[in-house]
Amino acid sequence: MVLVTPGKAGQTALRHYSSLPMLHFLFPTAPLRGVGSKGLKPSWYDVPTLDPDQIARQPTPEGLVDGVDYVLGLIEPYVRRGIPPSRIFLVGYSQGGGLALAAALRAPRTLGGVLMLSSWVAEPLPLEFQDVPVHIFHGAEDPVVPLSTAQLCRQRLEAVGLRTSFHAYPGMSHGVCDEEVAQLAQTFYEALRT
Prior knowledge:
Blueprint: E1 2-5, H1 12-15, E2 25-26, E3 32-34, E4 40-42, H2 52-57, H3 64-80, E5 89-93, H4 95-106, E6 113-117, E7 134-139, H5 147-159, E8 164-169, H6 178-192
Parallel strand pairs: 1-2, 1-5, 5-6, 6-7, 7-8
Antiparallel strand pairs: 3-4
């Protein structure tokens, strides 16, 4: 089972992943929230900064814990029906990647993995967390979330002992490319073949 948390409203970029065989996908929609001066927009949580150093020093963003509870609530019925947590993956694009990571780290059981696409670590890392594999996919030319932010996030995850993989795509902006889709499918295949 794959739960995909797109960014503010970017479900379209991820819908074509649902064509991957043998996987059941869920695409929840972010609630409407006040986003700075932009008024009400679909948003999982407040994003005061994308700077990893500032994120590490500030409290958890408003709305993130509610989003985590929502995501974990969507997963629980699948676990009760017998799907092993090790076969449940959280995928998040942009803001959704921070939510996916936060949910997987707080999950009551270790999930199969987190796949963060064009994303960042949204909060200071908790002191206790699940040891979940984290796969980072990022555009080398991303003007919204710079590649350096993703690289620093990987370093922070590894510094606390999390296993990561990192894939950067030359020429890719803040979006999705065919090479990334192929790598995503390969990541699922490798994780599920055991």
